[in-house]
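Sat 14:20. Reprocessing the chain from the morning session after the first attempt stalled halfway. Input below, unchanged.
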Amino acid sequence: MRKLFILGIGMLCTFANAQNIDDVIRYSNDNPQGTARFQAMGGAFGALGGDLSSLNINPAGSAVFNFSEFTVTGSNYNRNNDATYGNSISNTDINSLEINQAGGVFVFNASDDSPWRKLSLAVNYDLVNNFDNEFRASGSSNQGIDNYFLNFAQGQALGPLRVQNGERIDDAYLDIGSSIGFGAQQAFLGFQSGLIEPNDDADENTGYFSNAQYTNVNQEYAQITSGYNSKFTLNLAGQYQENLYLGASLNFHTVFYDKLTTFDETGYDAASDIQSTRFDNFLHTEGNGFSFSLGAIAKLNDNIRVGGSYQSPTWYRLTDDISQRINTDSPVGNPNINLIDFNIISLFPEYTIKTPSKLTGSAAIIFGKEGLLSFDYGYQDMSQAELRPTSDAAFANENQFISEQLGVVNSYRIGGEYRIDQVSLRAGYRFEEGPYENEEIIGDLTGYSGGIGYSFGPSRLDLSFSKTEQDTNDFLFDSGASNSAMVNRINTNISLGYSVKF
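Finished this time. Tokens:
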């Protein structure tokens, strides 16, 4: 039977795996893959328009279409991760297949005496982020998982960590979480598993020590994520006279995110009462969000276009639930500890993440019907991100931490296209700075792309290949120990899109 409990708002931020800086970064990373043409040119469409995924950069782009059009795109996502932990390197490689874009634009020509030459109405779905990913780390460390539980236990009275007469251990786990909070709940797991012990047996005791003896321990860690962040866009744009395009969009976001972490630890000293520990966590997040965008594109002459756009903050309303399980071979552990498993679910109240707004400036050179070059520059101040309600003390502390740790993210995209009769050859480059002031936590992202398109008259088939690379420093524990794995992340996408004018 599944058992659930709800934590009060005052306890919300004590869950170290959620509602923190990591979530802000995850949902601020607005990284739509888009149409195959969009991907092949590095997403540099802010001054070009004429592509449904260009609405993610500049909502004025739909007014550039001369005909109504429908586009659908499917992509194969490959995730290749090399995790360095200690002196060991572990590789994981996964693939997933998604319909990542679908949409249409309807173009309406105005009367000859109107300064508005045409109006366009567009609807588009884009996969902003595909969360399907996995990495594994294996190596030795002088910091064991006992530090995680000791960090939560120190200062916590022993009395509430006991299982009362006639009480089931899983009910006690639920009760302490709902009445005291997540931190005490972690101390409960450490104590009931026999991994940590109180300094004395009095209920008033607030000091603890580890039952694990070691100089170095062997650790195996896996993080498996799945889900998506999608965006549905409603767009209205128009061409004013001959050289100005204006547009606005309303964006509706949907989030589903799952994260499973598994952790195994062995290699304790021969004299240690504990010889093995396993600790697993599962986080599920879902919710929705809203944002809007405004933009303009100007034709300075027949060859040069410039564009500018404003992307508002995105306001996400999210809910989390977590489940945990722990097992040790401690002789003093509660023999019923296995009753606490993934069927015991902790529910958290709804909360809000406000991601920072973004400004984009763009320029493009058009070489008649032969081809084009395009450039986009994006500016986003990640230190302005917030967890809400800001009246919550824990959120206020985390927001202060966010403002100190995160900084401005500058991004650059360059794309080009060369046409030979019905064939279009494309290439792109992308560079995006890491969001942390300390670049060793998340490094800069670089990407390359290329593709080809073939026009069949009213329809077009596009194929693209894109590859990005980024280094991240992923911590195994959220508190108590600084163990981390350096992960080299290489994402490769192959996309096929079909467009038809009508």
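The domain at 15-157+214-501 is CATH 2.40.160.60 (Porin).
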